[in-house]
Amino acid sequence: MFRFANIEVLWLLASVPAFALGYWAYTRHKRRQLEEFGDAELMEQLMPNASRVRPTVKFSIVLVALTLLIIAAARPQFGQSERTEKRQGIEAIVALDISNSMLAEDVAPNRLERAKQMLSKLMDNMVNDKVGLVVFAGDAFIQLPITCDYVSAKMFLNTIKPDLIKTQGTAIGQALNTSIRCFGEQSDASRAIILITDGENHEDDAVAVAKKAREMGIRVLVVGIGKPEGSPIPLPGTNNYRKDRNGNVVVSKLNEDMCREIAQAGGGIYVRCDNSNTATKAIQKELDKLGTQEIETQVYTDYNEQFQSFALIALLLLVIDFFIFNRKNKSLTRLDIFGEKVES
What value does the mean pLDDT take over residues 9-30? Predict the structure, then answer.
């Protein structure tokens, strides 16, 4: 695989044709000035050592060298190897509710964004652990397979929006089943599912699935987000709120009883997330209690740097340019390297 580590540097290549155009305009202007003094053939006889080709050759060499130096600065890299490493850590799957009710603003800035902020902080504290991401509403799917790549995990986290899933609802049981599958093969590592939801489950028996997870050695930690008294759900891009069929504003309430039942069945804890860091600290404390085990993970080594070749060729061209003079060299004229001899 080939890539540029500093790909933004390649924008400097846009200056290369600009330099070429500027040089063409300069030589054209210079030629016109020379023609104003007299006949071109006569002027050439008066300046026998002047060369029209060498300056262009020298400029071309410098331009190619500049291009190569820009490419070198962009750090071209080639190849990537993969190896398996063993680390001490846990495996955690985050099941994140992205139903429309998560847009309620009873926590700032809204339930979904607050949940993403909390997860980002949890990932900052991970070192050798594996993390995966499942999103759900009326349906559930794996957003990010379990991995040690926290940079990718945060990137995927930032892209999450309610419109990722067209089927609305809150299928917590399906989300837990999907999270269990996300773990993959049996492992000795301690496993946990971090369920973040407002608890408005209308789809399936989430408590039964949480109990099944516990029997498989997977703890279910539940984070309830929102307030029990509830909040209306804003319509994105408007100043209005969602309404039911009768035209009444829908108020989404945090179902703490449901969240507690799921946590109890899953052998975990329930904590409510507000605008403080209480929930983050509580979940981190529970994760720290899990015994770390030796887990295998795929690690990608760094790409091999290839900029040296481009820099070396550029340096060689600049050395060649240094030894080419703008004027003809009498001792080398007989070689006619630049094809400047004219048959008489």
Answer: 90
Cβ(164)–Cβ(97) below 8 Å? no
Please name every residue paired with 96 in a beta bridge, in sequence order, or none if there are none. 135, 196
Helix (H) or strand (E) holding 144: strand 140-147
Domains of the chain plus CATH, in order, are: 2-79+304-335 (no CATH), 84-299 (3.40.50.410)
| H/E run at residue 77 | strand 76-78
* Contact partners, residue 57, CB within 8 Å, separation at least 6: 324, 338
Measured CA to CA, the distance from residue 299 to residue 329 in angstroms comes to 59
Half-sphere exposure of 76 (CA within 13 A, CB side): 14
pLDDT for 304-323, tens place per residue?
788 888 999 999 999 998 88
Cis amide bond preceding 109, omega within 30: yes
Provide the pLDDT for residue 17.
Answer: 93
In 3-state terms, what secondary structure has residue 327? strand
Start-end of H helices in the chain: 15-37, 40-46, 54-73, 111-124, 150-158, 172-182, 206-215, 256-265, 278-289, 307-322
If one compares 53 and 271, the residue with the highest pLDDT of the two is 271
Residue 344 is predicted with a pLDDT of 44
Model confidence over 200-211: pLDDT tens digits? 766 678 999 999
Distance CA 53, CA 61 (A): 12
User: pLDDT band at residue 279, thresholds of 50, 70 and 90?
Assistant: very high
Q: In which region does residue 241 sit, left (phi positive, over 0), alpha (psi from -120 to 50) or beta (all else)? A: beta
CA distance 275 to 2: 44
